[in-house]
Amino acid sequence: MKYLFVLLGALALNAAHADSLYRWVDKEGKVHYGDRPAADAVNAEQKQFSGSATASDDDLPYTVRKAKQNFPVTFYSAPNCTEVCVQARALLAKRGIPYTEKTLLKQADYEALTKLTHAQSLPVLSIGHTNLVGYEPGQWNSELDIAGYPKTKPYGLRTAPAATPTPPAPAAAPEQ
After folding, report:
1. Do 119 and 139 lie in a common domain?
2. Chain-centre distance for alpha carbon 135
3. 42 shares a domain with 64
4. Distance (Å, rounded) from C-alpha 141 to C-alpha 139?
5. Number of domains in the chain
6. What is the DSSP letter of 32?
7. What is the value of pTM for the model shown?
8. How many helices (H) and strands (E) does the chain have?
9. Which one of 51, 106, 112, 152 is CB 3.0 to 4.6 Å from 101, fit for a cystine?
10. Cα separation of 129 and 86, whole Å?
11. Is residue 166 part of a domain?
């Protein structure tokens, strides 16, 4: 049970940052999860998670599915886009917006985005055919409203809960 909370916490943190999670087996055969595998990891696998609030469209409320179908959201970032991108992801998470994140790791990716938006800075949010350059919460919220996305995370739309620390088990009383 303790491992389940650790896994759920790792998934919640991972989904929030749209990073990757690693699963590996140690030399004793125990399965571990973390942001990077241990040096002695056997069979390390990288798990990818999108920034989407849910795993499948079937779990989304009808209005969110419809908005996603008509106005898909793509969030463009880069590894050096730190605080502003964290704030932007938080806005999307607060509203429960299912989105795809594209991290521009190659010069060709950046050039393609620049050609699409003529943007010289990040982040960029694409809502359907509308591209918003830079993080402006008022503008982002307005465009998401127009596209039909909810203002707050819809009831029932769940993300993995954060891990709750498990208190240590009480020490066994010494036998007499």
Report:
1. yes
2. 17
3. no
4. 5
5. 2
6. E
7. 0.57
8. 5, 7
9. 51
10. 23
11. no
Q: Give me the CATH number covering residue 79.
A: 3.40.30.10
Rounded-to-integer distance, Cα 62 and Cα 148, Å = 11
Residue 5: Cβ-neighbour burial (10 angstroms; 0-12, 13-18, 19+): middle
Q: Which two tokens stand for residue 10?
A: 């790792």
Length in residues, the chain: 176
The tens-digit pLDDT sequence of the chain (176 residues) is: 554 444 444 444 444 444 456 677 778 877 777 767 777 777 777 665 444 444 467 788 888 999 999 999 999 998 888 899 999 999 999 999 999 998 888 887 778 788 888 877 889 999 999 999 999 999 999 999 999 999 998 765 554 333 334 444 454 555 55
Pair 40, 26: CB distance under 8 Å: yes
Tokens of 81: 């886009």
Structural domain range at position 92: 57-147
Establish how many alpha carbons lie within 13 A of residue 105's alpha carbon, considering only the half-sphere containing its beta carbon.
3
Quote the radius of gyration of the chain (alpha carbons, Å): 20
74 and 36 in one domain? no
Residue 83 CB: number of other CB atoms within 10 A? 8
